[in-house]
Every structure is written in structure tokens, then in C-alpha cells.
Input
Amino acid sequence: MLRPYIAILASPPELLERIMARRFPLTEAANAFRTRPISQHFEANGLRLHFLDWGEEAPTQLLLLHGLSSNAHTWDDFAKEAHTSYRIVAADLRGHGESGHAADGYTLERFAADLKALARHLNARRFHLMGASLGALIAIYFASENPRMVQKLVLEDGGPGLDMTAARQGAEARFRRPFGFDTPEEAQAWLRSAYPRDAEERVKARFQYGMKQNWAGKWVLREDPDLFWVLGGYQKAAEEMDGMGDRLKSLECPVLLVHGQESVLMSAEAAERIAGAAPHCEVAHIPGAGHSVHSDQPELFRQAVARFLT
Output
């Protein structure tokens, strides 16, 4: 009776991963006993960094990186569906969410160093990596520097083809905000106007995880205002952005670019150029989605990622 199980355990790691992937397909319903992640902190690179751990007994880890001005909780709905297939870990990037604000700045190099420290903390030697927008740029940088660590790479509406002029214009509007709000209702009203595509539940989540009450009793955004300069506002950032095309060409792992067909930051032509530049890249154009594909079309996004990873 034990022979089939012994044979599985004796199989090569890649075969075992395929067997387990079929046993725990991404379309499987989420474990009813895990409806929320465990919130954890660790110290690295002079910062206290935060991540959400949807830990399950799965053979493969999937690390998630959010975009500029977002936080790890942006992946909650996706993780609720997918965590039975993978151990999902969603990071709060430095300067975002519950992670510390950085005195040494916000270059892609430093974001990638934090990610490597997180992988070391998790004892994750090889994993799938998914990044949205800024997270996609960090993911490309990391995968190009650490090719043996990344099995598959998912880029959500981000990469060298991102329209940086449009991104800076959007950031200027987002960072031009009141210093604080007197009540949660005022703060949520501002969030509704700032993110008109968001459903009401998403607005509430942005308030719950993206804002805090400061020492003066005002409701303020958690993110560091200095994050604005990430978007090419100084020489180091501009140099890093200029080098992203070469990094994309150097990637060794399979890549999926999930593109929102209504995105104002990435055109369909730019998405196809990325696919042509990376050696092993495919594109999923998602209808009815803007820049934040996983929020605008969560089911189509999940299906595209599931097909690619499994």
C-alpha cells in the first residue's frame, strides 16, 4: 500500500512539483480555515520590513510585490483563491504599508536587496515571483541578478514599456493630497475620488491598510512621500530605468506579462515589445482592465496566472 507514495517521494523535485501542482490546482477553492494571512516583520538592510504569509503545506512558494503607493493587502483576494496551491508571501515594499521608511532611498537595487533578504528569511531558495507596476520592475531587476532563484516570473502591467511620463503625471496627482483628514469618512471620500475605478470594498481596504491615525489624531497615508522620486525624479532612478531593457533581455526564466487593455500606462504595442525582448515571454491582454489588472478583472487575472504557473 505504501509503494505509490514512496515512488512519489523518491521522484525528482521537478516531477514532484508537477504532481503537487495537479493535486492543488490554482482553481481549487480556498481552504476554509485560512481566510486571512499571518502578519510578520523582520529586520533587514537597516529597516523593519513587513510581509503577509499565506503559509500552506505546498511545495512551491509564490512571492508577490505590489505597485507604487500600494501595499501587500492588494493581493488579499488573489491569495484567498490561490494559497491552497502555493505558499503565498506578499511583501510590503520599503516605504509602504507597515514597512519602515528608508533614509537611504528607494532605488530598484535597494528594493531588490530587500526581496533577497525576505527570501533568505523564508529559506526560499527558488520560487515564483509576481510584481505589479513598480513591483514588476523590481521583479525584473531581481530575476536578472538572481536567475537561479526565480522559477517563473509574472509581470502585471509593468516593465520597460511603461509610460513614465503618464506614470509621473498620475503620481503627481496622487501625491498632491491634504496633509491629513479629521475623520475616516473624509479620508474614504478622498480615496473614492482618487481611485474612481475601485469598488466600495476596495476603497475600504485602501483605508484600512493604507492609512493610519497619527499622533495629532489625523488620518494620513502610511507611505513615505519621498517615494514620489522613484519615478525617474533623480539620476540614479533614471539610470536604472534606462537599463531595464537589457535586464529584460537577460532573463532566463519563463515570463508572463499580464496587460490591461484599458491601461493608460502601458499600450498593447509596448506589451508586445516586452514579449519580443524577453527570451521566454508570453502576453495575456485582459479586456476591461486598466493598470491594476488584478483589481479590475480579478477572475481573468487569476485564470491567466493559473494557466502560466501550472
Q: What stands out?
A: Confidence is low (pLDDT under 50) at residues 1-33. The longest helix spans residues 108-122.
